[in-house]
Amino acid sequence: LYSIELRNVELKDFFRVIAHDYNLNILVDENIQGKVTASLTNISLKEALERIAEMNNLVLKKEGNVIIVKPNLVTRIFILKHVEAESLLEEGAQSEAGAPQEPEEGAVSQEKSYKATIYDLLSPQGKVLLGKYPNSIMVIDYPENIEKIATYIKMIDKGMESKIFKLKYIRVDEIIGEEKGSESESTSTGGTEEEATTESGG
């Protein structure tokens, strides 16, 4: 049995040291990131590796005499409030099909407008499907990709902003009163002035 004390150790460094000190063949996936802090006593080496892998969302796979360490794919359900789940996936699938590709040698490249979608945030092993809940999607991917998709959904799943306009209502009697006032003003001041002349004979 072993005792292992770890404080803020890089995961890649941990597996590298274990492989060196105990003559093990361990292959660590390049996507593994993060640090580990753990205090384990009276534990077998196999159980210690399994516990550390579990707490860091990793999976250990043994092939022959080689242990392969990879990030464990996780599943997360997103329930949409404003955007339709089906239209989100359909739009993403159409954009993915129309994604720009590198032109063949000698061919003239044609630039096309390309809109990023939820599929662009998936890893090669990731999947996005319709969820079992109403208007929901299910994403299966590595944790870091799940977080990117969560941020993306938070940005697009918004309702239309409502604006309040202040309207001024004018009563009919106010309009009539203004018209009468204008007529009386034009009557008192709008008449033509006549000039009277008196001739005196001399």
Description of the molecule:
- This protein is an alpha+beta fold.
- Among the domains are: 2-71, Phage tail protein beta-alpha-beta fold (3-Layer(bab) Sandwich); 74-97 and 116-156, Ribosomal Protein S8, Chain: A, domain 1 (2-Layer Sandwich), CATH 3.30.1370.120.
- The protein has 5 helices and 8 strands; from the N terminus they run E-H-E-E-H-E-E-E-H-E-E-H-H.
- It has helices spanning 11-21, 45-55, 85-97, 143-156, 172-189, and strands at residues 2-10, 25-28, 35-43, 58-63, 66-71, 74-79, 127-130, 136-141.
- The chain has a 3-stranded mixed beta sheet. The protein has a 3-stranded antiparallel beta sheet with strand order 6-8-7, with helices on one face. The protein has a two-stranded antiparallel sheet with strand order 1-3.
- The N and C termini lie far apart (149 Å).
- Residues 107-114 and 191-202 have low confidence and may be disordered.
Structure, briefly:
This protein is α+β, with helices and mostly antiparallel strands.
What oligomeric state do these chains adopt?
Answer: single chain
How much of the sequence lies in strands comes to 15-25%
Global outline: elongated
Average pLDDT works out at 79
Number of strands: 8
Q: In angstroms, what separates the terminal alpha carbons?
A: 149 Å
- Give the SSE string: EHEEHEEEHEEHH
By CATH, the architecture of the domain at 2-71 is named 3-Layer(bab) Sandwich
Helix content: 25-40%
Q: Radius of gyration in whole Å, from Cα?
A: 38 Å
Unreliable residue runs = 107-114, 191-202
CATH topology of the domain at 2-71: Phage tail protein beta-alpha-beta fold
**Structural class of the helix and strand makeup?**
alpha+beta
Strands of the widest sheet, in order across it, are 2-5-4
Query: Tally the helices: what do you get?
Result: 5
Major sheet details: 3 strands, mixed
